[in-house]
Amino acid sequence: MARKDAFILQDVEFIAASGSLAIVTGSVGSGKSTLLSAIAGEMSDVSGTISRQGTFVYAPQIAWVFSGTLRENILFGESYDEPRYTRIIEACALTKDFQQFPNGDQTVVASMVAPDVWLSFLTRKLPSEQKDKTNLTIYGGLVTASFILGSIRAYIFFLVCLRSSERLHDKMVVALLKAPVLFFDSNPVGRILNRFSKDVGSMDELLPLQFLASIQLALLLLSSVIVPSATNPWVLFVTVPVTAMILYFARFYLKSSRELKRLESICRSPVFSHVSETLDGLDTIQTRGRQRDFMDKFHNYQDTHTQSFIMVTASGRWFGVRLDAIISLLIGLVVLVVVLVSQDAASAGLSLAYLIQTVTLTQYAVRKSSDVENFMTSVERVITYTKLDSEPGYQVDTLPPEHWPYEGNITFRDVSMTYYPGGPKALRNISLDIKGGSNIGVAGRTGAGKSSFVAALLRMPDPDGEILVDGIQIKNINLRAARGCISALGQTPVLFSGSLRKNLDIMKRFQDADLWRVLEDVQLKDFVQSLEGQLDYELLENGANVSVGERQLICLARVLLQQNKIIILDEPTAHVDPATEETIWRVVREKLKDSTIITIAHRLNTIRHCDKVFVFKEGGVFESGKFDT
Could you tell me the pTM of the whole model? Predict the structure, then answer.
C-alpha cells in the first residue's frame, strides 16, 4: 500500500464465501475502508478483477438518512410488505421509539444632460459666433468631471454595499451559532446553505450592480423628461398622463414580480437539500442501486424550480410588451406636438433625442428596479436569519469565577427536559451526584435518555430543575462560559477545512510546543512530522485526507489541549481499530485522570472500568452502582 493523500491497494487477494462472516482488521490507515470501497465498486481498479454475486448492502460508519419519512428511509424504494416490515421494526427494537413520535413511522426527519444641453446651445449659434477652443475646453471639462465623479460615486457605493453585506453575513453566522437545536431539526441543511450561497451571493455581486444601475437610469429618465419640458413646455401635456400610465403598470408588475421571485427562491431550497443529502449518502444509494429513484426525485424538484423561474421570466416579458406600446405612443404624440408648436430646430431635435432614448431606458429602468426588489428578497431572507431567537443562556451576562470549575463536581436536582414546548419528556425528575475526578458510565437502550442527560448538562436546551457544577448553578451563568468548561469527544470526529494547527487550537491560545506535546501523547507526532507542512498541513472537509482513526486521535489531542475539568465521551472508539482504541483509553486514563469523565456506553465493555454506572430507562435513572454489581 502506498499513500500520498490517497489509498492504493496492492496485490490483494480476498475471497468471501456465501453465508460466511469475514472480518477485515488492521492498523490505522492500512486500507480496510479502501478494500470495502473497492468491493462496493467505489474505487477504480488498475489491474486485477473484482467479482461478486447476489445483492450488496453497505452499512457506513456514519449513519445516513435523507429528508423524508422514517418509513421511506427504511424501505429505501422497496415495496411495502406490512408483515415483513413489522418484523424488521421489532428486530431493530424500534417499535417503542416509533410509538413516541407524533406520526409514528410517518414522521419526517430531517437564490449627460449638461454636455448635451451645451451642444444644443452651440447649434443655435452661427459658425462665426462659435469659438472652437472655448467650446472644446468647456465640453472636455464637463466630460472629465463626469468621469471623475462617476468613478468616485461607484467606488463609494460598492464599498458601502459590500460592507453592509459583510455585516449581515457575520450577523447571520452569529445568529445561527446561537440558535437552539430545535431550529436545525426543523430546517433542512439545503435551506441554510441557500442563505449562505445564493442569497449572500446576490447581496455581494448582483444587488450593488442592479441598485446603482437603477439609480442611474432613474436620473436619466428624469432628465429625459425635464430637458424636453424645459425647451418645450407643451410636451408636459403628453408626458404626464403617459407617465402615470407607466407607473400604474409598473406598480402592478413589481408587486407580482416580487412574489414570484420569492416563490422561486423557496422552490430552490429543496434542490440544494436533495443534492447535499445525495452526496452524503452516495455510497449507500449506489450500492443499493437506487440511483434512478434519487435522479427522479431531483428532476421533480428541479422541474418545480424551473416552473417558478419561467414564471419570473414570463412576467418580465408581459410587462415589456405593454411598456413598449406605451412608449411608442408617447414618442408619436411628442413628435406631433414638437412639429406643431416648436419654432427652434435645435430645441426640437434635443427634445426628440431625449424622448427617443426613453424607449430603451424606461423598460430597462423598470426591469432594473424590479431586479432590485427581487434581490432585496435575498436581503429579507438573510435579515430573517439574523433575527433568529438565540438560546436563553446567551442573554445571561454573569460569568463564573476565575478557574472554575475547580474539581468537576456535578449535581442534578429534580431535572426534567423536553426538546420542544409540549413535547414528551426526554428526562424525568433526575437527581444524582457525581464526584469530581470520577469516571462515570451512562448506559441504557436507545431512547432511554443517555444523550438527553448530556444535552441537559450542555443546556441544549435549558432543562427544568437545577444543575450545579462545583456548587454553582449553570443556568445562572453565561451559556458560552458554561459550555466552555466542558470538552466532548463523540463517535464521529469533527474536523474543519484548514490547517492541522487551526483544528487543534482554533482560538490561537497555545504555543507550538503545546501542540506537539499533545500530539506526542496521542502517538501522532511522527505521523504529523511526516506530513508536508507538518502543523500547517491542510486538512480537507471533515478530515477526508486522513483515516478515521487519525481523525479521532486529532480530536482527542484537541481535548487534551483544552484541559477542562469535565469530559464527555460518546463511544469514541466505535469506528476505530483495536490498536487505536487502546491508545484512546490509555490517554484517557493517564492524561485525564484529574477530570470528571462521563462516558455514554453503547457497548458494555466501554464502561467496565468506570467508578460508577448510571442505567437510564424511559428518561429516568433506573439503577446505579459499580459495573460488577
Answer: 0.63
